[in-house]
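User: Fold both of these, please.

Assistant: Here is the first one.
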Amino acid sequence: MVRNCKKKERDFRRISICELKRTDKICNKIKRLCEKL
């Protein structure tokens, strides 16, 4: 679970989705999940 989360976070950083779409719900959900873990 933790690994999966970090991998997703890395993928988002790589393609800059979080920066391009700061209000994107999927991105925010993953970020929140990663912060909790």
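And the second sequence with its predicted structure:
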Amino acid sequence: KMEDDSELDLKDYLGKKVILSKSPHILLNLLKATLIWVFALTIIWLFYPLIRFWFENFMR
């Protein structure tokens, strides 16, 4: 009985995976691009004071 349940779960999972793979790739690429931008902007925001401080000392 337990084996049947796990088999159904696997089929359900595979079905969902197929639906996901059939969804437009543009949306996925947009999501990836957004995540990359957020990541990059976060790094810039974190390191900006450090870079500015370094530039101020370097320009003297």
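The chain has a mean pLDDT of 78.
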